[in-house]
Amino acid sequence: MTEPSLETDSTRFRRTLVKVMTMQVAALLLLWWLQATFTS
Amino acid sequence: MHPLNWLIVVGWIGYVVIDGVRRAKGTNAIEGYFLANRSLPWWAVGLSVMATQLSAVTMIGTTGQGATDGLRFIQFYFGLPLAMVILGVTLVPFLHGARVYTAYEYLERRFDAKTRSLTAFLFLLSRGMSCGTIIAAPAVVFSAIFGWNMWWCVALIGVPTVLYTMIGGVQAVTWVDVKQMFLIVGALLAIVVTLLVQIPVSPTGALTVAGAVGRLRAYDFSFTLTNTYTFWSGMIGGTFLMLSYFGTDQSQVQRYLAARSVDEARSSLLMSAYWKIPLQALVLLIGVLVFTFYVFHRPPLLFNPAHERAVREAQPAAYGALESRYQAEISARDLAGRDLAAATSEADSRRAADRFRQRDAQTQAVRTEALALANQVTGQLSRDVNYVIPRFVLDHLPIGLAGLFIAAILAAAMNAIAAELNSLATASVVDFYRRWIRKEGSDAHFLAVSRAATGLWGLFACVVATFAANLGSLIEVVNRFGSFFYGSILGVFLLAMIPRARGTGAFVGLLAGMSAVAAVNFGAPSVSFLWHNVIGAVVVVIVGLGLSLFFKGGMGNGNGNGRRAVLSPAQTTEPRVAL
């Protein structure tokens, strides 16, 4: 009974982790784009 | 300010207090008062974690920093997502599973009472002081803007916050945080829209103007220990700071200890990690847009109205001459800015950018002279950066929106203060009163003591706030208080996860870590405070582990039982030991 629950928790954690890191990469790339495009 | 704006501000404060006090229902023991009976959903905890960090310092200081210094402050937060992920798989399961009230309580189970008491004491010391500065930050600005007595400004922010925190406990703090976060984000987005509408060039033109003077430079890859805002100090020093802040600071730990489960506690931290950099970028971008706005609209020579009045009265001729020069410079800068925003070819754009930079430098030179004059007249270091946004809000935002933004500044201040008061009371009652003074007592007794502790910490913070006005840059003062101890306390928690570490090793390591940070701070003051966290944590782990290994078997944990095993998350769910 415990193992499937642990697996669900860990899957959810991994999925959230991927979302978090994707958001960070997107934010950092956007900042990079702003700097590269508008800083002369 | 227009009466409608005041109505919004007063209405919001009233609503928050009533809502907070209402949450006291059903709270009749300290587990409910301090941890909401560990029943809060992850999204509410996540919003509360975010709200706690988003203080008035962020709303006033960070936006002002965006206007004067651009986006580079964002690098400070680069380590945050990584820190949240590390905490999610390490400390959060330990602390939540241990069913403790405070992070320091866990250290007694793992090490000994003296390590617990010292870390809790350091928390009370640093947070007690920083709570005062968090109230002082907006109070100083309100006092200068509205011409009120400082005591009144401190009371406006402090009294409602203390009231709902004292009566409602963590339930009130969390649910008020949730509502205030919506207000704050709404106000920030509304200000962005207003700025885009009011700036007389296209958004691309506005960004070109800001970029020409380096306001959009978010990355600095230089490796230097003396610069706080570089990619490396943010990634390395920032990760250590965030690990320490979110993993060992009771004001943060208490948020996720109130979550329903370990998984929900982890999710709440990841939610904060998800939004922090975008939200902080938005705050800084508002500052950048305010800078662009003032390229095309006449900015005041001094943003601090109190200093402006003082200089105008004391040195009318000198100030008048500066104002005339300033007027000429900003007119020239306005024209150069419009040329730059309208430039189509690359060659035109380059020439226009050079001209704009030159004009901006001349404008800044006049401002620097005015600031020096203000310092000379008032005898105070002018922190004009903190008045840029409040002046913009009051002078240029439409009726209603200005009130909304002032309410959002107050909301941000209240969120941060409430979380700190709640955690200060928790550490005082659980780690000191119930540990050393009165171990047994009824729920009603401990609840009354907890409320009294919250009220006393509130009073202390308000007193500190009235004297903290001249402590320096609003942002750095708050972080500097913590950085003296943060890294070292993180080192103790890292040691707690190493099975060979012992109590006395941890205690001596903690003292060594703080001494090392103090030595660096006074011996090499140019080293950025972000690196203090790394130094403190590393010294504690090396010294603590070294001593534990050297005196293997001979160093007990204070009760003669020798080394205690590291508690695994599963083991820590055993019934709590009596405090």
Strand content of chain A: under 5%
Distance between the termini of chain B: 52 Å
Instruction: Provide a count of the helices of chain A.
Output: 1
Order of helices and strands of chain A: H
Oligomer: heterodimer
- CA-CA gap between termini of chain A: 61 Å
Low-confidence runs of chain B (pLDDT<50, min 5 residues)? 553-579
Q: Please tally the helical runs of chain B, counting DSSP H or I stretches of 4 or more residues.
A: 23
Structure summary, number of beta strands of chain A: 0
Give the uncertain stretches of chain A in residue-range form: none
Report the helical percentage of chain A. Answer: over 70%
Give the overall silhouette of chain A. Answer: rod-shaped
| Largest sheet: number of strands, sense, barrel closure of chain B | none
Radius of gyration of chain A: 17 Å
**Helix-residue proportion of chain B:** over 70%
Question: Short summary of the structure?
Answer:
The complex is a heterodimer of chains A (40) and B (579). Chain A has 40 residues and is mainly alpha-helical. Chain A has 1 helix and no strands.
Structure characterization notes:
The complex is a heterodimer of chains A (40) and B (579). Chain A has one helix and no strands. The radius of gyration of chain A is 17 Å and the shape is rod-shaped. Chain A is an all-alpha fold and 40 residues long. Chain B is mainly alpha-helical. In chain B, 75% of the residues lie in helices and 0% in strands. Chain B has helices at residues 3-22, 30-35, 42-53, 56-69, 80-89, 91-97, 103-110, 113-146, 150-198, 203-212, 231-248, 250-257, 262-296, 305-314, 316-342, 346-378, 388-396, 401-437, 443-467, 474-483, 486-496, 503-523, 529-550. Chain B starts with a helix and ends in a 29-residue tail after the last helix. Chain A binds chain B through residues 9, 12-13, 16-17, 19-21, 23-24, 27-28, 30-32, 34-35, 37-40, and chain B through 71, 74, 78, 81, 84-85, 88, 207-208, 210-212, 214, 216-219, 263, 266-267, 270, 273-275, 277-278, 281, 349-350, 353.
